């Protein structure tokens, strides 16, 4: 069979992994697809930069159109990241009939519908398994594995960098900034790690997963997002003392046709399996009406795990080429999107309050919860080890989000409360 020629946009952490797997597993790939896969050209920013693998320098280019306009290139693998130029190169490649494999969740979360429509018009494949949860094949699983079921909840740790940071803070008492630097050196973090730590990367991934899982057009703005930059070692220590771990969780639910998607640091009971997903590992729980609970676990970032998903997509494209069925993914019709209101969202909450250390304080605080119909599971009052005031730790029963907002608003004018130190959602 004639070789399938690939143009690689990017030779950083993931691009390097793609070259290693395509070259190292060539025979296995060929035996599955029937065609040799050749990386023909590679786009980089700087051709003279030192590389961690040996590359024939004649393959490197700094001009994207050397790849996108090359009639010999069959598939463009995009692992350069970014949105603006990258979108333009991908659309141009599709308009020239090239198939696309990408790891770019930013692009797919923001412009997925436009890119997929362009692919459809040109009978091209666009596959993006590596864009969510690195080495875990969760996208194919949602599209194919769960096609017969109705998914009610998707819950996961979908950002390796923040999970790495929270794990090191919890297990080693390491400082936030020190561990972030390590995650960057290991190639887990995004070029701008703000999108990891502020939850945006996870929100983009949850946009993709909930769109596929609930078969409705979820937009990034629909995801309520909070990152981990305000999480303190004190919060983590409290969580541990009470039998919880703090994790950045993406949670998407669908009930009676209404959906909600959130990303926020969440206290997870330490007996729940997701509490022991540590380091760069990701885990995604999918709950289906018929199947019940399922869990997918694996490395969420890094060179070879991410490249595994990219090359699996490449194999799928090449198999489709052999069968002549590229671009024939049946998208079906999406359901109308209906977002839950705060009144329809129900969670347990943890609150840490710094309060005056005097008689009657606890009663005034519990009265506010009662006034807004938020029932309490446990309340603990103790001296604050660092201040003359006291601490009150509250865990609520399931309460609707609107009621919790009213409680927090009332606390702002309650004179016995010095500070609402932390508020976290509680899961499990
Ligand atoms: N790292 C990971 O674990 C994961 C990453 N991803 C996604 O994969 C993509 C790539 O990530 P990663 O490999 O970490 O990124 P890197 O920053 O390590 O690599 C980016 C590569 O793209 C090249 N590049 C960047 N901008 C341009 C440009 N404007 N023109 C030409 N070349 C350019 C760089 O060239 P040069 O080498 O010359 O600087 C570099 O080779 C991103 O979309 C990311 O979100 C997805 C899952 C996991
Ligand atoms: N920065 C991301 C990389 C993979 O998508 C992460 O940390 O998960």
UniProtKB/TrEMBL annotation:
<feature type="domain" description="ACT">
    <location>
        <begin position="350"/>
        <end position="425"/>
    </location>
</feature>
<keyword id="KW-0520">NAD</keyword>
<dbReference type="Pfam" id="PF00742">
    <property type="entry name" value="Homoserine_dh"/>
</dbReference>
<dbReference type="InterPro" id="IPR045865">
    <property type="entry name" value="ACT-like_dom_sf"/>
</dbReference>
<dbReference type="InterPro" id="IPR019811">
    <property type="entry name" value="HDH_CS"/>
</dbReference>
<dbReference type="InterPro" id="IPR005106">
    <property type="entry name" value="Asp/hSer_DH_NAD-bd"/>
</dbReference>
<dbReference type="InterPro" id="IPR016204">
    <property type="entry name" value="HDH"/>
</dbReference>
<comment type="pathway">
    <text>Amino-acid biosynthesis; L-methionine biosynthesis via de novo pathway; L-homoserine from L-aspartate: step 3/3.</text>
</comment>
<keyword id="KW-0560">Oxidoreductase</keyword>
<comment type="pathway">
    <text>Amino-acid biosynthesis; L-threonine biosynthesis; L-threonine from L-aspartate: step 3/5.</text>
</comment>
<dbReference type="GO" id="GO:0046872">
    <property type="term" value="F:metal ion binding"/>
</dbReference>
<dbReference type="GO" id="GO:0050661">
    <property type="term" value="F:NADP binding"/>
</dbReference>
<keyword id="KW-0791">Threonine biosynthesis</keyword>
<dbReference type="GO" id="GO:0009088">
    <property type="term" value="P:threonine biosynthetic process"/>
</dbReference>
<protein>
    <recommendedName>
        <fullName>Homoserine dehydrogenase</fullName>
        <ecNumber>1.1.1.3</ecNumber>
    </recommendedName>
</protein>
<comment type="similarity">
    <text>Belongs to the homoserine dehydrogenase family.</text>
</comment>
<feature type="binding site">
    <location>
        <begin position="9"/>
        <end position="16"/>
    </location>
    <ligand>
        <name>NADP(+)</name>
    </ligand>
</feature>
<keyword id="KW-0028">Amino-acid biosynthesis</keyword>
<keyword id="KW-0915">Sodium</keyword>
<dbReference type="Pfam" id="PF03447">
    <property type="entry name" value="NAD_binding_3"/>
</dbReference>
<feature type="binding site">
    <location>
        <position position="105"/>
    </location>
    <ligand>
        <name>NADPH</name>
    </ligand>
</feature>
<feature type="binding site">
    <location>
        <position position="190"/>
    </location>
    <ligand>
        <name>L-homoserine</name>
    </ligand>
</feature>
<keyword id="KW-0479">Metal-binding</keyword>
<dbReference type="InterPro" id="IPR001342">
    <property type="entry name" value="HDH_cat"/>
</dbReference>
<keyword id="KW-0486">Methionine biosynthesis</keyword>
<dbReference type="InterPro" id="IPR036291">
    <property type="entry name" value="NAD(P)-bd_dom_sf"/>
</dbReference>
<keyword id="KW-0521">NADP</keyword>
<feature type="active site" description="Proton donor">
    <location>
        <position position="205"/>
    </location>
</feature>
<dbReference type="GO" id="GO:0004412">
    <property type="term" value="F:homoserine dehydrogenase activity"/>
</dbReference>
<dbReference type="GO" id="GO:0009086">
    <property type="term" value="P:methionine biosynthetic process"/>
</dbReference>
<dbReference type="InterPro" id="IPR002912">
    <property type="entry name" value="ACT_dom"/>
</dbReference>
<dbReference type="Pfam" id="PF01842">
    <property type="entry name" value="ACT"/>
</dbReference>
């Amino acid at each position: 069979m004639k070789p399938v020629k690939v143009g690689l946009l990017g030779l950083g952490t993931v691009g390097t992994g793609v070259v290693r797997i395509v070259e190292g597993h060539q025979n296995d790939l060929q035996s599955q697809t029937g065609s040799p896969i050749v990386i023909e050209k590679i786009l980089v920013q700087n051709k003279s930069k030192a590389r961690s693998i040996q590359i024939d320098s004649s393959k490197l280019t700094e001009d994207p159109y050397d790849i996108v306009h090359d009639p010999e290139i069959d598939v463009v693998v995009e692992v350069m990241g970014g949105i603006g130029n990258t979108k333009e190169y991908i659309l141009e490649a599709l308009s020239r009939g090239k198939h696309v494999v990408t790891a770019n969740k930013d692009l797919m979360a923001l412009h997925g519908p436009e890119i997929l429509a362009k692919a459809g018009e040109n009978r091209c494949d666009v596959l993006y398994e590596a864009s969510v949860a690195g080495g875990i094949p969760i996208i194919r699983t949602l599209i194919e594995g769960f096609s017969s079921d109705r998914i009610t909840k998707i819950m996961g740790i979908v950002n390796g960098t923040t999970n790495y940071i929270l794990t090191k803070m919890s297990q080693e008492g390491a400082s936030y900034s020190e561990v972030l630097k390590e995650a960057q050196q290991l190639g887990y973090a995004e070029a701008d790690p703000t999108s990891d730590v502020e939850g945006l990367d996870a929100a983009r991934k949850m946009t993709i997963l909930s769109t596929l899982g609930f078969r409705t057009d979820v937009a990034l703005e629909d995801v309520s997002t909070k990152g981990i930059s305000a999480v303190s070692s004190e919060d983590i220590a409290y969580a541990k003392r009470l039998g919880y771990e703090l994790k950045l969780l993406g949670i998407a639910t669908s009930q009676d046709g209404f959906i909600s998607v959130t990303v926020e640091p969440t206290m997870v009971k330490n007996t729940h399996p997701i509490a022991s997903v540590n380091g760069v590992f990701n885990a995604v729980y999918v709950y289906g009406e018929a199947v019940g609970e399922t869990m997918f676990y694996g490395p969420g970032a890094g060179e070879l795990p991410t490249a595994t998903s990219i090359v699996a997509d490449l194999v799928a494209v090449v198999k489709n080429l052999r069968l002549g069925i590229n671009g024939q993914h049946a998208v079906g019709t999406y359901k109308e999107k209906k977002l839950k209101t705060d009144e329809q969202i129900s969670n347990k909450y943890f609150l840490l309050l710094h309060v005056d250390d005097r008689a009657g304080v606890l009663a005034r605080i519990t009265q506010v919860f009662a006034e807004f119909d938020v029932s309490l599971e446990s309340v603990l009052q103790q001296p604050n080890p660092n201040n003359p005031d006291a601490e009150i730790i509250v865990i609520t029963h399931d309460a609707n989000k609107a009621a919790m907002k009213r409680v927090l608003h009332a606390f702002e004018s309650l004179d016995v409360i010095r500070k609402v130190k932390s508020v976290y959602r509680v899961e499990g």
